[in-house]
Write a structure and sequence with these properties.
The protein is of the alpha+beta class. It contains 25 helices and 24 strands.
Length: 797
């Protein structure tokens, strides 16, 4: 077994293993999940438009695209414009649509569009592994690759169209080239090594500008190289070597210098040259960006003055950064917005990154690891600063510094294992406190994933724009529960490898736990592909609902589509379809004597239910939160229309509890009963069922709150849209009976065992500006000053 691991981590073979593992995780079944809508589908639609058949002009008349460095310098036209220049299709920040378009030429499927991005992700992983190989050896490189593959940000970035894998890939290529040039291999491989480095550098610069522009794609790696090599051993080492050479030259013949340290390797001079070039690049890039987005103007009130002039920003499109630079900051993007990306995007292995970065940069992991620590720290910090600036001045951007975290983790774990092998009785590089920190950090983030799953669902687009489908499950368990369980499980195994090393009698367990935790990184990468991405796609892509239609259709059946679904029907319908303009036309379509199917926006369900007015229609699939599948015949299928059992015209039966006197909100909605358990277990959910009778037209879309208040401590609550968001209160009509079911989680932070009082009501708005609907009638003592109604208590144990 030991010889097998030695073979596995042999430096010459590590790239081969990494290539195989990356292909295993990133390439299989790219077409399987389907395109998440609407963000990923928008990229696909742009790729389809880009590949639309156009007359090709003769070669001598075809426009020649400008070189990217002329775009970088802003020579394509006016320096400042409020919209992208019309010929900026191949400029900065244009790589992802271009990759999707090229993939579409390979295969007219969503998998074909994803293929170039996945291949670029493999290139990113190989470059990241190469950096760790140069700085730490074969095992460090292999662990770095597995750590990177465990990051959801990387895996989803490489496999989804709305990612930005080109920016981190470019940074990894540029930094690999710099590390390789500063530390070239000697002997017969020198020429090949330098040629490979030059190719990586050129490719990295080109990809970096196309994917991230001058700010995110080029400035970040330039700063990282300049900071790591210039302020590390590069410039000091070169100065040291120069001084030694000068003193040697000035000594008398036969004299010998005493008391001067041995000079460093010649690579110190190479590292210094790399640092000088990188520093010059930083200065040039900053100058170009500033020249495009700021004006040197006469003194202007309200603007800072330098040497009798004002530096005035303006809302303008910069060809260097590939975005519209805004004068006013977007104050919604606080410092924590990027930190949330890092926390969720690298969970759970990323919790080790702060420890690893500190251990490497401080030298506690060994002086030979300082260079890697400085590089990873500078890379991660520069990425954070650039992303923060971009989000406040341009728009949403993905943090491209996760390869730096992977390198730090790989180098640190390798140093830890090397220290244990060489000096098993020496104090460990990782005290038991590290285990406590890792488990606590993972548990904290796992709780946040459970409470705010939209943050990780929206990882690639930001702003909680992709709502997590609460009914998503894997092997019968909530999908978000798997994220927390796997995350905490990984840190528990890693924590055992740290904690159990110190008592000698448990050392064998610790020895086995460390490789187990490293292997778990690969398991996590596979989970993000086959568990998370694939599981959510069932609910966030229309591919599944189209597959339900294709399974049910027979010869002669007709498909109609209402609303804009982009090119999704082209990818998934498997045949022709009709366009349905509105609700009346949908009613006519479903009234045909032959069997028909209709794909309808889910937001139309309640309104169409009113339009149908009792005429038969059936909902055959409601798994997609954006699109439902309707039909006029069941033909053996099941009707899953939630309104059949939640919006009634007769009073519901079997209500467990009813009020002694009427409970009425705003003289319009009467609460006639409820079902709530008397006891519940901590960490489970409490199902609250409320029964309403609509007495008058309800204006606006009100939400329902359910507060479980303890005598002391934190409450848990279940604020939600009525009827799972399928029918807003604005559609409720007098005479309706509404049944609302909601499962309220009891495992929040600060929640302890005890008796919790249930208070319910309606509200609109958001924190801190919300309004509760007035309670006009209630039994005495059941209403409080906040317009809440008390419905009893639940004992939580």
């Amino acid at each position: 077994m030991r010889r097998f691991f030695e073979l596995l981590t042999r430096p010459a073979l590590v790239p081969i293993w990494v290539l195989a593992i990356a292909a295993l995780v990133l390439l299989p079944d790219l077409q399987r999940p389907g395109l998440w809508e609407p963000h990923e589908l928008q990229v696909a639609d742009a790729a389809v438009a880009k590949n639309a058949t156009k007359p090709t002009p003769p070669p001598d008349l075809a426009p020649k695209p400008p070189l990217f460095w002329t775009q970088l310098a802003g020579y394509k036209g006016p320096k400042c414009a409020v919209t992208p220049p019309p010929d900026d299709t191949d400029g900065a920040r244009t790589l992802e649509p271009e990759l999707a378009a090229r993939g579409l030429k390979i295969s007219e499927t969503d998998g074909g569009m994803r293929l170039p991005g996945a291949l670029l992700g493999i290139l990113c992983l190989l470059a990241t592994t190469g950096i760790a190989l140069r700085l730490g050896g074969g095992r460090a490189g292999l662990i770095t690759a597995l750590a990177c593959l465990s990051f959801p940000m990387f895996v989803l970035d490489a496999r989804m169209l709305d990612g930005d894998v080109g920016t981190p890939a470019a940074a990894a290529l540029i930094i690999y080239a710099a590390v390789a040039i500063a530390r070239p291999k000697r002997g017969t491989w020198l020429a090949t090594d330098l040629i490979l480095s030059a190719v990586a550098l050129g490719a990295g610069i080109w990809i970096g500008f196309r994917a991230g522009g001058a700010l995110l794609g080029l400035l970040v790696p330039a700063i990282a190289i300049a900071a790591a090599e210039g302020f590390g051993a590069g410039l000091p080492g070169a100065i040291h070597a120069t001084r030694r050479a000068h003193l040697d030259a000035t000594l008398p013949t036969g004299a010998q210098l005493i008391g001067f340290d041995e000079p460093p390797a010649w690579s110190s001079i190479g590292r210094a040259l790399v640092a000088i070039v990188a520093t010059a690049g930083v200065i040039a890039l900053v100058w170009i960006i500033a020249a495009q987005i700021y004006d040197w103007a006469p003194p202007t009130p309200g603007q800072r003055e330098i040497m009798g002039h004002s530096i005035v920003p303006s809302d303008c499109w910069s060809t260097a950064i590939g975005g519209l630079w805004k004068v006013d900051d977007d104050l919604r993007m606080g410092v924590d917005s990027v930190f949330e990306q890092i926390a969720f995007g690298t969970f759970p292995v990323g919790v080790l990154a702060p420890i690893a970065l500190f251990a490497l940069a401080s030298g506690s992991a060994g002086d030979d690891r300082r260079a890697a620590g400085r590089l990873a720290l500078a890379w991660a910090a520069a990425s954070w600063i650039a992303t923060q600036v971009w989000q406040r001045k341009v728009g949403f951007a993905l943090w491209p510094g996760f390869p730096a975290c992977a390198i730090a983790i790989g180098m640190w774990i390798d140093a830890l294992m090397t220290g244990r092998e060489r000096h098993p009785e020496a104090p460990s590089l990782a005290p038991p406190l590290v285990a406590i920190f890792a488990v606590a950090a993972a548990a904290t983030i796992a709780v946040d994933v459970w409470a705010f799953p939209d943050r990780i669902t929206s990882l690639l687009v930001g702003g909680d724009a992709v709502k997590y489908p609460m009914h998503a499950k894997l092997a019968g368990l909530p999908l978000r529960l798997w994220v927390g369980a796997l995350g905490v499980g990984f840190t528990l195994v890693f924590g055992a490898a740290i904690w159990l090393w110190h008592p000698p009698r448990f050392r064998k367990i610790a020895q086995r736990a460390m490789p187990a935790s490293i292997g778990a990184m690969l398991v996590l990468g596979l989970f993000w592909v086959w568990g998370w991405h694939d599981g959510l796609a069932r609910h966030l892509s229309s591919k599944h609902v189209f597959s339900v239609y294709r399974d049910l259709r027979k010869d002669g059946d007709t498909l109609g589509i209402m609303g804009d679904m982009g090119n999704a029907p082209k990818y998934y319908a498997g045949g022709p379809w009709e366009t349905i303009p509105g609700r009346d036309q949908l009613l006519t379509f479903l009234a045909r004597p032959s069997r028909v199917f209709a794909l309808v926006p889910s937001s139309e369900l309640c309104a169409f239910h009113r339009t149908a007015a009792g005429k038969p229609y059936y909902v055959l699939d409601d798994s997609n939160p954006r699109t439902y599948l309707y039909s006029n015949q069941l033909d053996g299928a099941d009707d899953v229309n939630p309104l059949r059992r939640t919006v009634l015209r007769t009073a519901p039966e079997h209500m467990k509890k009813t009020p002694p006197q009427p409970i009425v909100f705003d003289d319009k909605i009467e609460l006639i009963g409820w079902d709530v358990p008397d006891e519940a277990s901590f960490g489970s959910s409490v199902r609250v069922t409320l029964y309403f009778h609509v007495k008058g037209t309800v204006g606006g879309a009100w939400k329902i709150f359910e507060h479980f208040d303890p005598p002391q401590g934190a409450r848990f609550q279940g604020d939600h849209d009525p009827i799972h968001g399928t029918c807003a209160t604005s559609f409720w009509q007098p005479g309706d009976y509404i049944i609302d079911e909601n499962d309220v989680d009891t495992g929040g932070m600060g929640v302890i065992a005890g008796q919790y009082e249930l208070w319910v009501g309606f509200f609109t708005g958001s924190n801190p500006n919300w309004t509760n609907m007035k309670v006009t009638t209630a039994p005495k003592g059941w209403k409080d000053n906040a317009e809440r109604v008390h419905l009893g208590a639940v004992m939580l144990d």
